Protein backbone atom coordinates (compact mmCIF):
# COMPACT_ATOMS: atom_id res chain seq x y z
CA UNK A 1 0.00 0.00 0.00
CA UNK A 2 2.84 2.39 0.82
CA UNK A 3 4.31 1.78 -2.66
CA UNK A 4 0.98 2.69 -4.25
CA UNK A 5 0.65 5.92 -2.23
CA UNK A 6 4.27 6.84 -2.96
CA UNK A 7 3.74 6.40 -6.69
CA UNK A 8 0.53 8.43 -6.52
CA UNK A 9 2.47 11.27 -4.87
CA UNK A 10 5.15 11.04 -7.56
CA UNK A 11 2.47 10.97 -10.25
CA UNK A 12 0.74 14.07 -8.91
CA UNK A 13 4.00 16.02 -8.99
CA UNK A 14 4.81 14.84 -12.50
CA UNK A 15 1.23 15.33 -13.68
CA UNK A 16 1.14 18.90 -12.35
CA UNK A 17 4.11 19.77 -14.55
CA UNK A 18 2.61 18.00 -17.58
CA UNK A 19 -0.69 19.81 -17.05
CA UNK A 20 0.96 23.24 -17.10
CA UNK A 21 2.84 22.45 -20.30
CA UNK A 22 -0.26 20.92 -21.91
CA UNK A 23 -2.21 24.11 -21.27
CA UNK A 24 0.13 25.95 -23.64
CA UNK A 25 -0.47 23.38 -26.36
CA UNK A 26 -4.21 23.37 -25.96
CA UNK A 27 -4.55 27.18 -25.84
CA UNK A 28 -2.68 27.62 -29.13
CA UNK A 29 -4.58 24.76 -30.74
CA UNK A 30 -7.89 26.16 -29.56
CA UNK A 31 -7.17 29.53 -31.16
CA UNK A 32 -5.22 28.63 -34.31
CA UNK A 33 -5.79 24.90 -34.78
CA UNK A 34 -2.03 24.20 -34.92
CA UNK A 35 0.36 22.29 -32.66
CA UNK A 36 3.21 24.44 -31.37
CA UNK A 37 5.96 21.83 -31.09
CA UNK A 38 8.44 24.55 -30.08
CA UNK A 39 6.60 24.87 -26.75
CA UNK A 40 8.92 22.42 -24.99
CA UNK A 41 11.94 24.52 -25.97
CA UNK A 42 10.26 27.62 -24.54
CA UNK A 43 10.05 25.67 -21.26
CA UNK A 44 13.77 24.97 -21.50
CA UNK A 45 14.60 28.64 -22.07
CA UNK A 46 12.50 29.55 -19.03
CA UNK A 47 14.38 27.13 -16.78
CA UNK A 48 17.82 28.20 -18.00
CA UNK A 49 16.93 31.89 -17.82
CA UNK A 50 15.75 31.40 -14.25
CA UNK A 51 19.00 29.58 -13.47
CA UNK A 52 21.08 32.49 -14.81
CA UNK A 53 18.93 34.93 -12.82
CA UNK A 54 19.47 32.92 -9.64
CA UNK A 55 23.25 32.98 -10.22
CA UNK A 56 23.13 36.76 -10.70
CA UNK A 57 21.00 37.33 -7.59
CA UNK A 58 23.28 35.13 -5.50
CA UNK A 59 26.24 37.24 -6.60
CA UNK A 60 24.56 40.64 -6.17
CA UNK A 61 22.44 39.93 -3.08
CA UNK A 62 23.84 36.88 -1.26
CA UNK A 63 21.62 37.48 1.77
CA UNK A 64 18.34 37.29 -0.17
CA UNK A 65 15.97 34.54 1.07
CA UNK A 66 15.89 31.47 -1.16
CA UNK A 67 12.13 31.64 -1.73
CA UNK A 68 12.37 35.27 -2.88
CA UNK A 69 15.26 34.40 -5.18
CA UNK A 70 13.15 31.65 -6.76
CA UNK A 71 10.12 33.93 -7.15
CA UNK A 72 12.16 36.66 -8.87
CA UNK A 73 13.91 34.12 -11.10
CA UNK A 74 10.55 32.61 -12.07
CA UNK A 75 9.12 36.04 -12.93
CA UNK A 76 12.17 36.81 -15.07
CA UNK A 77 11.79 33.47 -16.83
CA UNK A 78 8.10 34.13 -17.44
CA UNK A 79 8.89 37.54 -18.94
CA UNK A 80 11.58 36.15 -21.23
CA UNK A 81 9.42 33.21 -22.33
CA UNK A 82 6.43 35.47 -22.92
CA UNK A 83 8.53 37.69 -25.16
CA UNK A 84 10.04 34.63 -26.89
CA UNK A 85 6.61 33.10 -27.57
CA UNK A 86 5.37 36.43 -28.93
CA UNK A 87 8.36 36.57 -31.27
CA UNK A 88 7.80 32.99 -32.42
CA UNK A 89 4.17 33.72 -33.23
CA UNK A 90 4.98 37.00 -34.96
CA UNK A 91 7.91 35.75 -37.04
CA UNK A 92 7.26 32.04 -37.61
CA UNK A 93 3.50 31.48 -37.42
CA UNK A 94 1.69 34.65 -38.46
CA UNK A 95 2.99 34.64 -42.05
CA UNK A 96 1.78 31.01 -42.35
CA UNK A 97 -1.63 31.54 -40.82
CA UNK A 98 -3.47 30.81 -44.09
CA UNK A 99 -1.02 28.14 -45.27
CA UNK A 100 -1.74 24.39 -45.14
CA UNK A 101 -1.46 23.04 -41.59
CA UNK A 102 1.64 21.06 -42.44
CA UNK A 103 3.61 24.30 -43.01
CA UNK A 104 3.39 25.67 -39.44
CA UNK A 105 4.03 22.16 -38.08
CA UNK A 106 7.31 21.93 -39.99
CA UNK A 107 8.12 25.51 -38.95
CA UNK A 108 7.55 24.60 -35.29
CA UNK A 109 10.05 21.75 -35.56
CA UNK A 110 12.55 24.14 -37.16
CA UNK A 111 12.06 26.71 -34.39
CA UNK A 112 12.54 23.95 -31.83
CA UNK A 113 15.90 22.96 -33.31
CA UNK A 114 17.01 26.61 -33.51
CA UNK A 115 16.15 27.23 -29.85
CA UNK A 116 17.96 24.06 -28.76
CA UNK A 117 21.07 25.08 -30.68
CA UNK A 118 21.05 28.64 -29.32
CA UNK A 119 20.59 27.34 -25.77
CA UNK A 120 23.50 24.94 -26.26
CA UNK A 121 25.69 27.85 -27.42
CA UNK A 122 24.62 30.19 -24.60
CA UNK A 123 24.45 27.76 -21.65
CA UNK A 124 26.67 24.90 -22.91
CA UNK A 125 25.61 21.37 -23.75
CA UNK A 126 26.31 19.99 -20.27
CA UNK A 127 23.56 19.73 -17.63
CA UNK A 128 23.72 22.61 -15.14
CA UNK A 129 22.96 22.14 -11.47
CA UNK A 130 19.81 23.96 -10.34
CA UNK A 131 20.30 25.08 -6.72
CA UNK A 132 18.13 23.79 -3.88
CA UNK A 133 15.95 26.77 -3.01
CA UNK A 134 13.01 24.88 -1.51
CA UNK A 135 12.97 22.40 1.39
CA UNK A 136 13.72 18.86 0.27
CA UNK A 137 13.36 17.00 3.57
CA UNK A 138 10.91 14.06 3.24
CA UNK A 139 7.55 14.39 4.98
CA UNK A 140 5.59 11.28 5.89
CA UNK A 141 2.15 11.11 4.22
CA UNK A 142 -0.44 10.25 6.88
CA UNK A 143 1.92 7.74 8.55
CA UNK A 144 1.75 5.44 5.51
CA UNK A 145 5.47 5.17 4.88
CA UNK A 146 5.16 7.18 1.67
CA UNK A 147 6.96 10.53 1.63
CA UNK A 148 6.70 13.86 -0.12
CA UNK A 149 9.12 16.78 0.06
CA UNK A 150 8.41 20.44 0.63
CA UNK A 151 9.40 21.36 -2.91
CA UNK A 152 6.98 18.75 -4.31
CA UNK A 153 4.16 20.21 -2.23
CA UNK A 154 5.03 23.68 -3.56
CA UNK A 155 5.00 22.34 -7.13
CA UNK A 156 1.53 20.82 -6.73
CA UNK A 157 0.10 23.93 -5.02
CA UNK A 158 1.67 26.26 -7.59
CA UNK A 159 0.26 24.20 -10.46
CA UNK A 160 -3.23 24.25 -8.92
CA UNK A 161 -3.12 28.02 -8.38
CA UNK A 162 -1.88 28.70 -11.91
CA UNK A 163 -4.52 26.45 -13.45
CA UNK A 164 -7.31 28.07 -11.42
CA UNK A 165 -6.02 31.50 -12.41
CA UNK A 166 -6.04 30.55 -16.08
CA UNK A 167 -9.61 29.25 -15.88
CA UNK A 168 -10.71 32.52 -14.26
CA UNK A 169 -8.88 34.48 -16.97
CA UNK A 170 -10.51 32.56 -19.81
CA UNK A 171 -14.02 32.37 -18.35
CA UNK A 172 -14.42 35.62 -16.39
CA UNK A 173 -12.42 38.36 -18.16
CA UNK A 174 -12.78 40.43 -21.29
CA UNK A 175 -9.61 38.92 -22.75
CA UNK A 176 -10.94 35.45 -22.02
CA UNK A 177 -14.18 36.20 -23.86
CA UNK A 178 -12.15 37.49 -26.79
CA UNK A 179 -10.13 34.27 -26.77
CA UNK A 180 -13.24 32.12 -26.79
CA UNK A 181 -14.77 34.22 -29.57
CA UNK A 182 -11.62 33.99 -31.68
CA UNK A 183 -11.49 30.24 -31.12
CA UNK A 184 -15.06 29.90 -32.39
CA UNK A 185 -14.61 32.06 -35.51
CA UNK A 186 -11.84 34.66 -35.95
CA UNK A 187 -13.58 36.47 -38.80
CA UNK A 188 -16.86 36.91 -36.95
CA UNK A 189 -14.97 37.89 -33.78
CA UNK A 190 -13.19 40.58 -35.81
CA UNK A 191 -16.54 41.94 -37.01
CA UNK A 192 -17.66 42.16 -33.37
CA UNK A 193 -14.74 44.40 -32.39
CA UNK A 194 -12.21 41.74 -31.34
CA UNK A 195 -8.65 42.08 -32.63
CA UNK A 196 -7.69 38.50 -33.54
CA UNK A 197 -3.99 39.34 -33.92
CA UNK A 198 -3.87 40.77 -30.40
CA UNK A 199 -5.76 37.79 -28.98
CA UNK A 200 -3.48 35.27 -30.70
CA UNK A 201 -0.35 37.11 -29.53
CA UNK A 202 -1.73 37.28 -25.98
CA UNK A 203 -2.42 33.54 -26.08
CA UNK A 204 1.17 32.81 -27.07
CA UNK A 205 2.50 35.14 -24.35
CA UNK A 206 0.36 33.46 -21.67
CA UNK A 207 1.35 30.01 -22.92
CA UNK A 208 5.02 31.00 -22.83
CA UNK A 209 4.69 32.27 -19.26
CA UNK A 210 3.07 28.98 -18.22
CA UNK A 211 5.88 27.07 -19.90
CA UNK A 212 8.43 29.07 -17.90
CA UNK A 213 6.68 28.19 -14.63
CA UNK A 214 6.66 24.52 -15.65
CA UNK A 215 10.35 24.72 -16.60
CA UNK A 216 11.34 26.18 -13.24
CA UNK A 217 9.24 23.53 -11.48
CA UNK A 218 10.94 20.76 -13.48
CA UNK A 219 14.42 22.12 -12.80
CA UNK A 220 13.61 22.51 -9.11
CA UNK A 221 12.26 18.98 -8.89
CA UNK A 222 15.12 17.25 -10.72
CA UNK A 223 17.93 19.58 -9.63
CA UNK A 224 19.33 20.32 -13.09
CA UNK A 225 18.61 22.11 -16.37
CA UNK A 226 20.02 21.60 -19.88
CA UNK A 227 19.36 22.52 -23.50
CA UNK A 228 17.49 19.27 -24.25
CA UNK A 229 15.26 19.23 -21.16
CA UNK A 230 12.10 20.42 -22.93
CA UNK A 231 11.89 17.92 -25.78
CA UNK A 232 10.54 14.78 -24.09
CA UNK A 233 8.33 16.66 -21.56
CA UNK A 234 6.95 18.65 -24.49
CA UNK A 235 5.96 15.47 -26.32
CA UNK A 236 4.46 14.03 -23.15
CA UNK A 237 2.50 17.22 -22.50
CA UNK A 238 1.16 17.01 -26.06
CA UNK A 239 0.08 13.46 -25.21
CA UNK A 240 -1.63 14.79 -22.08
CA UNK A 241 -3.45 17.44 -24.13
CA UNK A 242 -4.65 14.79 -26.59
CA UNK A 243 -5.65 12.48 -23.73
CA UNK A 244 -7.77 15.16 -22.07
CA UNK A 245 -9.13 16.59 -25.31
CA UNK A 246 -6.93 19.08 -27.11
CA UNK A 247 -8.61 22.48 -27.30
CA UNK A 248 -10.18 22.00 -23.86
CA UNK A 249 -8.43 23.65 -20.89
CA UNK A 250 -9.95 21.39 -18.26
CA UNK A 251 -9.15 18.42 -20.47
CA UNK A 252 -5.48 19.45 -20.59
CA UNK A 253 -5.38 19.62 -16.80
CA UNK A 254 -7.07 16.26 -16.36
CA UNK A 255 -4.92 14.69 -19.07
CA UNK A 256 -1.72 15.97 -17.47
CA UNK A 257 -2.59 14.59 -14.04
CA UNK A 258 -3.73 11.26 -15.49
CA UNK A 259 -0.60 10.87 -17.58
CA UNK A 260 1.60 11.61 -14.58
CA UNK A 261 -0.23 8.98 -12.52
CA UNK A 262 -0.09 6.42 -15.34
CA UNK A 263 3.65 6.93 -15.76
CA UNK A 264 4.44 6.81 -12.05
CA UNK A 265 2.27 3.79 -11.27
CA UNK A 266 3.31 1.88 -14.36
CA UNK A 267 7.03 2.49 -13.91
CA UNK A 268 6.81 1.87 -10.16
CA UNK A 269 5.08 -1.49 -10.42
CA UNK A 270 6.96 -2.70 -13.48
CA UNK A 271 10.20 -1.64 -11.82
CA UNK A 272 9.18 -3.61 -8.74
CA UNK A 273 8.35 -6.71 -10.80
CA UNK A 274 11.67 -6.52 -12.67
CA UNK A 275 13.77 -5.70 -9.59
CA UNK A 276 14.04 -2.05 -10.64
CA UNK A 277 16.07 -2.92 -13.74
CA UNK A 278 13.65 -1.60 -16.35
CA UNK A 279 11.19 0.56 -14.41
CA UNK A 280 12.78 3.94 -15.15
CA UNK A 281 13.20 3.02 -18.82
CA UNK A 282 9.54 2.05 -19.11
CA UNK A 283 8.36 5.41 -17.75
CA UNK A 284 8.79 7.20 -21.08
CA UNK A 285 7.13 4.36 -22.97
CA UNK A 286 3.80 4.71 -21.15
CA UNK A 287 3.17 8.23 -22.45
CA UNK A 288 3.40 7.13 -26.07
CA UNK A 289 1.38 3.96 -25.49
CA UNK A 290 -1.33 6.24 -24.09
CA UNK A 291 -1.03 8.56 -27.13
CA UNK A 292 -1.44 5.72 -29.61
CA UNK A 293 -4.34 4.23 -27.66
CA UNK A 294 -6.21 7.52 -27.43
CA UNK A 295 -5.69 8.34 -31.11
CA UNK A 296 -6.98 4.90 -32.12
CA UNK A 297 -9.98 4.57 -29.81
CA UNK A 298 -10.95 8.13 -28.83
CA UNK A 299 -9.25 10.80 -30.96
CA UNK A 300 -11.29 13.58 -29.34
CA UNK A 301 -9.90 12.74 -25.89
CA UNK A 302 -11.62 12.17 -22.57
CA UNK A 303 -13.38 15.54 -22.42
CA UNK A 304 -13.75 16.06 -26.16
CA UNK A 305 -12.90 19.20 -28.07
CA UNK A 306 -14.76 22.46 -27.63
CA UNK A 307 -13.34 24.16 -30.67
CA UNK A 308 -15.96 24.49 -33.39
CA UNK A 309 -15.23 23.65 -37.01
CA UNK A 310 -14.38 26.76 -38.96
CA UNK A 311 -15.98 27.62 -42.23
UniProtKB/TrEMBL annotation:
Keywords: Amino-acid transport, Cell inner membrane, Cell membrane, Membrane, Transmembrane, Transmembrane helix, Transport. Belongs to the binding-protein-dependent transport system permease family. LivHM subfamily. It comes from the Bacteria. The keyword Metal-binding does not apply. It comes from Sheuella amnicola. It holds the Pfam family BPD_transp_2. GO terms for cellular component: plasma membrane. It is found in: Cell membrane. Its main location: membrane. PANTHER family: BRANCHED-CHAIN AMINO ACID TRANSPORT SYSTEM PERMEASE PROTEIN LIVH, HIGH-AFFINITY BRANCHED-CHAIN AMINO ACID TRANSPORT SYSTEM PERMEASE PROTEIN LIVH. GO terms for biological process: D-alanine transmembrane transport; L-alanine transport; L-isoleucine import across plasma membrane. The keyword ATP-binding does not apply. The chain crosses the membrane at residues 12-35, 67-88, 100-123, 153-170, 198-219, 225-246, 253-271, 277-297. GO terms for molecular function: L-isoleucine transmembrane transporter activity; L-leucine transmembrane transporter activity; L-phenylalanine transmembrane transporter activity; L-valine transmembrane transporter activity. It is a multi-pass membrane protein. This is Branched-chain amino acid ABC transporter permease.
